[in-house]
Amino acid sequence: MMMTASLCLGALAAPANESQDDFRYTDEKFADIQMLRYCVKGFDQLTLRQKTFVYYLQEASLAGRDILFDQNGRYNLRIRKMLETVYTTYKGDLNSAFFAGVTEYLKRVWFSSGIHHHYGCEKFQPAFTAEQLREALQQVDASQLPLAEGQTLQSFCDELFPVIFDPAVMAMRVNQRDGDDLVLTSASNYYAPGITQKEAEQFYLSRKAPADPTPIMMGMNSRLERNEFGRLTERVWRVGGMYSPALERIVDNLLKARDYADSPEQQRVIDLLVEVYRTGDLRTFDDYTIHWLRDTQSLVDFTCYFTESYGDPLGMKASWEAIVNFKDIEATKRTEKLSSNAQWFEDHSPVDSKFKKEKVKGVSAKVITAAILAGDLYPSTAIGINLPNSDWVRRDFGSKSVTIGNLTEAYSKAARGTGFDKEFVIDEPTRKLMEQFGDLCDDLHTDLHECLGHGSGKLLPGTDPDTLKAYGSTIEEARADLFGLYYLADPKLVELGLTPNAEAYKSQYYSYMLNGLLTQLVRIKPGQQIEEAHMRNRALIARWVYEQGKKDKVVELVKRKNKTYVKVNDYAALRTLFGKLLAEIQRIKSEGDYEAARSLVETYAVKVDPMLHKELLERYARLNVAPYKGFINPVYQAVKNDKGEIIDVKLDYTEAYDAQMLRYSRDYATLPWVNE
User: How many domains is the chain partitioned into structurally?
Assistant: First the structure.
């Protein structure tokens, strides 16, 4: 599970040889997106062996880029290639409105790994017409276009243009609307066209062993298709199977990295991961996961597989992602205080004792420095990650939790001076509180969410981890968020030296309620409802406690000069409400209470007040800041001697966003345009 960045608002980056103080975090802005850069502090202090290890791991990570494009939609690779060809070869007026529209649309396609918004999942519409694009394509060398064998430009346009221009065709990458067939109405490429939600659910339900205490995460690494007899079958993502060209290249670089691993234990982790890639066997994946969990001593760490299921409307199939990182030793002292007290937090939570773990096992937590982001973690990425996602592995072996320190730093630096706080925070004392303790409590909430929240609680015997279906991701994120919120106000954090006093937590309580009730809505277009799991989670929590505390005015929405503000009147009562909801969310998770999950999400997490929404959008527009952020990766340059041996690895932060994306499309193109 991952924690996305909260609503962070706020020149090219400095070359690698400039000091940290001179590093410029913000880059170009387009559409609703602000591009940022992150500094890989401490890379120069790594040994040559560790640098080389990072280098080959980042090569493996970048090799999987095409996979996510294809997972997000069956036409995405062709559309990307077509647009890149126009962008790089267009002979017309480069200052024209048409070319400006193509440029922005292509940048959005790169950013979202497809034609649907990376967060809201709705298809974005181009600022140019089908006729204009057709005319531009007629001027392009057809050999540079992703035409199928024997396909004409006319038939190519006939096939792709409705996908691009018709709002009704593949409208949502992930549709979560209650009552819809979520598989048929989602554009993500995890199920072949024509397969229904009922068919998919029945396929996997019939294959589950009801008494299995160690169930595999069935379906996580495959596409569900029909065979020649019309029967459903899985097309597994493995070497020799679907996505083989990309996976072969990933494996090749993992094996190169293996020689530079920190220990025999880490080499064993790589060996098992390579076996998973070659076989697709999910029992082997569990074995790999357990060995990865046990490796807590290696300075450099990584994940590089099909991981999170947010992109699947049924919450089963996993998107490909990778992150290479190394431990921030000083900052990790903070998270180690939490992980070493994991049992205390489990024992003292407001959750019913029958849903608690009797013995918390294997919880490790650290603050990391991201070295490369890839797949579903790039360009938009999480600020915290807790893995594995397997409930039984977490139960028996624990979990690894990370807070990505250099990314939270970049978000924080980019948010300064935007005017957001003055526009939306109710008064000066609250703004000062957030200024004084906001960054600290943001990091702590992420730590608690990832390290303890996701790792807390247990499923009752016989509860299927997939029982909550489409609501599972929202409920799980709410559970982890509530755990963090509840404990932020606990005197235990002051005792551990993690918060300076008993008042600091209020900064996070206020910012969370502000985000959940108001400001996250600026990410949604007029007339739309809330779709994304993390946004639904925050809305669910904030709206539920607001309604539950309305009689006592625990939290109010007040009007001042025709502007709506959040006012928190009773922080202690707010904490009590967070605890009450945590207890209910954990019960729902532990018992697999689908109807209760459905009721909570549909009641509190989906609908949008159109008048309030209009007000917030107008206020936010005046700030002229982008609601979404994403990152440009640094470039890793291997310095080699005459024998071809790596003698150093250098970092460069100056590559432009479009140059990086075009380079990735050229150097890490692995898949055919059509993977049917």
Answer: 1
